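To illustrate the input format used throughout this study, we show a single complete record. The first block contains the structure-token representation of the backbone; no residue identities are included at this stage. The design step must infer an amino acid for every position from geometry alone.
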């Protein structure tokens, strides 16, 4: 068993294709097949089932995949520790980001500062929902990810607090108020976000026993803004997801805080604090130095 074989195993499992895995790894498809055959012979198991031209992990393949990712992750950490001991900041950092809040408000500024300090670190960013990012961390698909806290199953590092706000058509009477009483949502058409904040908005509505008249469900923030601008309903989104520049392009949309005020906490999360690579540690330390709020509490 070699690290190369484990890396090939992981890549095939992720791509569910020998051809795509070979292409991304820059090797031949026969080399991929040979590596997997060697692993299966070494372990005396079948890692993949092959039916009608499609492949999928067997039960034992799923179990071994988790361990293979742990082995590769540990090897990468060891290599980065060696580089760090020689004063050479090299390695790879895989980051997970969710929605506009982290991808627009936090990540660009953080990446710019990180790149200036560690120009030789290769950075990859995967974007998905809050739940997807947490799953990617647990499965070792990424090293660190932004997350809405708390996340009891992960090791977390607090960064910043955010609030939920209402986007209201300016023709609605409630747009003239300084805030939107959350109970008033029942009196107007409602546009439900299908983006990263959906589960948190649904939890908020359930908490206050509100069943709004949902007229649209949309996943793109720009589409939601356009529909509110057309007077089609009220939407609830995270404040950090709503740049002032974007709001200014929609003159018939009014932003108002909710009452009661509803906060959410955003931080970074890893699977195992003790197994963080130097590149990951440096990323978290830089993020906390830039964004951490003292009043943060979980």
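Output of the design step:
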């Amino acid at each position: 068993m070699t690290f190369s074989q484990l890396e090939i195993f992981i890549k095939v499992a992720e791509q569910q294709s020998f051809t795509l895995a070979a292409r991304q790894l820059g090797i031949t498809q026969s080399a991929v097949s040979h590596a997997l055959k060697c692993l299966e012979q070494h372990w005396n198991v079948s890692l993949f089932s092959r039916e009608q031209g499609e492949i999928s992990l067997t039960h034992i393949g799923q179990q071994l995949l988790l361990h293979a990712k742990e082995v590769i992750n540990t090897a990468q950490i060891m290599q980065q520790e060696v580089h760090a001991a020689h004063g050479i900041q090299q390695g790879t950092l895989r980051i997970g980001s969710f929605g506009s809040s982290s991808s627009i408000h936090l990540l660009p500024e953080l990446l710019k500062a990180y790149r200036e300090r560690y120009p030789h670190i290769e950075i990859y960013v995967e974007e998905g929902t809050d739940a997807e990012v947490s799953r990617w961390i647990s499965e070792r698909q990424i090293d660190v990810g932004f997350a809405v806290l708390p996340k009891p199953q992960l090791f977390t590092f607090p960064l910043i607090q955010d609030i939920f706000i209402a986007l209201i058509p300016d023709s609605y009477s409630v747009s003239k108020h300084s805030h939107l009483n959350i109970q008033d949502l029942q009196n107007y058409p409602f546009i439900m976000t299908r983006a990263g904040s959906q589960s948190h908005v649904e939890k908020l509505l359930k908490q206050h026993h509100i069943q709004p008249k949902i007229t649209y469900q949309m996943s793109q923030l720009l589409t939601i803004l356009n529909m509110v601008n057309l007077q089609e309903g009220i939407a609830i989104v995270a404040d950090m997801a709503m740049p002032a520049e974007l709001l200014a392009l929609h003159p018939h949309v009014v932003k108002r805080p909710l009452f009661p005020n509803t906060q959410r906490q955003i931080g970074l999360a890893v699977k195992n604090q003790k197994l963080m690579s130097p590149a990951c540690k440096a990323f978290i330390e830089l993020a906390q130095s830039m964004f951490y709020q003292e009043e943060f509490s979980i």
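Structural context for interpreting the output: The mean pLDDT is 90. The two ends are 44 Å apart (CA to CA).
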